[in-house]
Amino acid sequence: MRALQRLRAAFGADPPERRNSPPAAGALDVDHLIRLRHLSLRLEATRAPPRSSLPGEAAHRRRGRGLEVHDVRAWSEGDDLRHLDRNVTARTGEPHVRAFREERERAVLLVADFRPSMVFGTRRVLRAAAAAEVLALLGWRAAREGRVGLMVLCAEGTRLTRYGRGTRAMLAAIGALAEAYREALSAPAREDPPLDALLEEADGLAGKSGALVVATALDAEGAGFADVVERIARARGLSFALIADRFETAPPRGVYPYATSGGAAGWLEVGAARPAPDEREARLRRLGARALVLDSGAAPETTAMELKRLDD
After folding, report:
1. Which of 157, 204, 215, 238 is the most exposed place for a label (fewest CB within 10 A)?
2. Distance between CA atoms of 73 and 131, rounded to whole angstroms?
């Protein structure tokens, strides 16, 4: 409770008349992210039983033999001699091997892309704020079943909030999200650092059994992005929530002024032709990761229901 009070004191709480209203465009509301916990709880009764021990139900193929010793039994033909239990073998005079199983408790590292390109939006919220909502929904679910941590990707590099358990861990993550988002809004315009290098750093800090859940728009991927994703996906659970603004997926016809961080400016003409289907999700799935395109203008209730598709 004290942690919650400190969060509200630092970042402000909604006045009573706005408690049930969506956050204003460009704002990241701490109370709003905290309330998503109850939305996640309400969805518990409607989602299918998990096919995986991974918090967040990101279904994945089990890799390796696990690290938790489950049993010690007599050796039989075909058993790996590297798993011999020397103590039991010496005590009984017969070879015994250790049997392993997947660890009961899993860890999830939430990765929030707050690089300059994410500070953009034409609908309900900016893409960065939508990414924070997605990670809050998944984080509350993960915190109930294991450990959760946070890494924020920003123009200066990365920021890490260490793994923790339960409500306290999620409140710490939400506070870090709010602080990083506020700084991203006021940061000077600059080019995005490449995403591939930042993902490699996240992979190195996720721990042996941690899964990565990345909320991003995939801007400035970097030359080695495909190789990095494929390698990480082979070693651990890797999921992408691809945040898309409606202007990107279904732009209205017209002529629009634009300006870039490099100083270029001009006019962009958008025709009536229907945009091509988003290939990013399919490409990431081909690389072995799980991926889902999410509309930044959708309400959190809609987003929560869409997130179930990450389990398919």
Report:
1. 204
2. 48
